[in-house]
Amino acid sequence: MTFVLFVVFLSVSMVGFFVVPIIYSRTVIFSQKRQQYFSHKLDRVMPRQQIQKVTKIYILAPILLAVFFAIVFPAQVRVLGIVLGVIGGFFFPGLYTKILIAQNKKKFADQMVDALMIMSSSFRGGLSLIQAMESVVEEMPEPMAQELSTVLAENNMGVSLEEALAHLYHRQPSPAVQQMTTAILLARETGGNLPVIFQRIVSVLRQRKRIEGQIATLTIQGKIQGVVMSLLPIMFIFVVYGSNPEYFNHMMASSLGRKMLIYACISEILGAYMIIRISMIKDF
Question: Rounded to an integer, what distance in angstroms lies between the CA atom of residue 98 and that of residue 106?
Answer without folding.
Answer: 12
